[in-house]
Amino acid sequence: MPLKEIGAFLLVLVAVFLFGNLWFHFVEAILRRIKSRFSRRRKPPAWHPFPSDKEE
Amino acid sequence: MGLFGKLFKGPEIDMEKSRANAEKMRVLFDHVVKDGADYRLIFGYTEDVSRFNYGFVHGSKTKIGNLIVGWNEASQTIVVVPTVPDLSGCGEPTWYRRAEILKAYRNKYPTDAFVIYPDKKGYIAINAYDWLEDERLYVYVSQEQELAAFTDFFMNKFATK
Lengths: 56, 161
Description:
The complex is a heterodimer. Chain A is mostly helical. Chain A is built from one helix and one strand, in the order αβ.
């Protein structure tokens, strides 16, 4: 019986962990969308790829 | 060396990979910085820690920015070029000339970062270590001697207090 209870408790912990992760990524996605709306007009920073003639 | 000796020796540095990355750092730096060859280089990184509270989920997020840090003793200048761990490219360089900065010092707590305030509005805290194992987050390069030289330059010629 205690084993079952321990198992159930661990299952609840796993469910809380999974829901917490989902919630985190859900809020992050919303915030990212809001931020991208406001920064659409901003020029992305200049980026220089590794010079192709120096590649091994 | 016995089995236990091997087990407890700790991680070994792949010097070939480290040398290749040091060369790539040099190519990138020279590509975006005029007279780049006049600068010595180390790898450094910045850490941006922010807290979040999304209702019942809260914690902190750390963003790591990889940097190629060049320094020139003669002109007392540090140049910082943002890059990525695989060194596939880099951003625009930023110059910090000792004569033009507000202040520079080495932090003590929570990290021994090299801190430069170009003006009152912002600062950059450069963390640097001999070698960092995690290739997904940091440039894989062993730089014991270069870091010692940079630390000496920063503390004795660049720091303002």
